Predict the 3D structure of the following.
Amino acid sequence: MAPTPMEKTCEYKLAELEFVNQDAPGLEEIAGRLSEMRADLPLLEYVTTVPRPSFAAAKEIIILARQIIFPGFFDPQAPQTELNVKFSIGQTLSRLFAALTREITAAIRHDHVRYDSRCSNCYQQGRSTAMEIMRLLPDMRRLLALDVLATKEGDPAAGNHLDQIILCYPGLLATLVYRLAHELWLRRVPFVPRIMTEYAHSRTGIDIHPGATIGPSFFIDHGTGVVIGETTVIGRMVRLYQGVTLGALSLPRDAGSSLKNVKRHPTLEDEVIVYAGATILGGETVIGTRSVVGGNVWLTESIPPDTKVFIKKPELVIINGAAS
């Protein structure tokens, strides 16, 4: 009896599976070559029993922090009455404290193992730093409430829907992650702040270095492509649109280490607005209070307060389709 088309298909699939499972010639040789490179490139591998910082752990910290800062919005099961709000927040605080302690400790130990330095009281350091962050959560919540209100005031599309801003706006998520990561950065926690802001970057397209300094009532509208460098300083009530770069001027090839602690990124004073696609570069560049930088402007020099900088209107060429 001839096999049916379905039976033939299954035979082909089984044959392909058997072929894939066979030892492929050449893989052993490639593995050997890669292993031999380990001695020449030791910093490109991580072979140890010490846990390392991870994106999964950073994501857990961010999720728990959002649940605490905006109760009910991101909880798997939101508090159903006023009576159990405190209980719900308390449970999440315990989970966040444990997650922060684990991840900060892992980062400190990773640093010691990686660079062969003496490890001393890593867990105690991790736990102490985690508790410092926990104590900052009420202040962080007040800051983020101002960021929500700044978004409401700066974006007519938001209307009066604060819940829509909290749930949907990528700029607020990026700002929340930045504010948490910044506190870890100030306490010299290795790796974790960058992992957190890179997670936000992957989710929102907004790249904020945790070392930047950003004041209250901060609003990023739309946000895709925004870049804020490490030594950027941003004042109160500043608004950025999509595609804005607050970056550094081009550096010599070997200048990375020597300029590590030098201010390389601009300062935006209070109430500055920077429109889409603008690029502002340089550590000595200061955009004065209440100034407006127009779309696609390239700026490497300071401007005084109450100044507007725009590109001259380009000449448009419009070709009528019927006449072409």
User: Anything to note?
Assistant: The two ends are 67 Å apart (CA to CA). The chain has two domains: 47-205, 212-250+261-314.
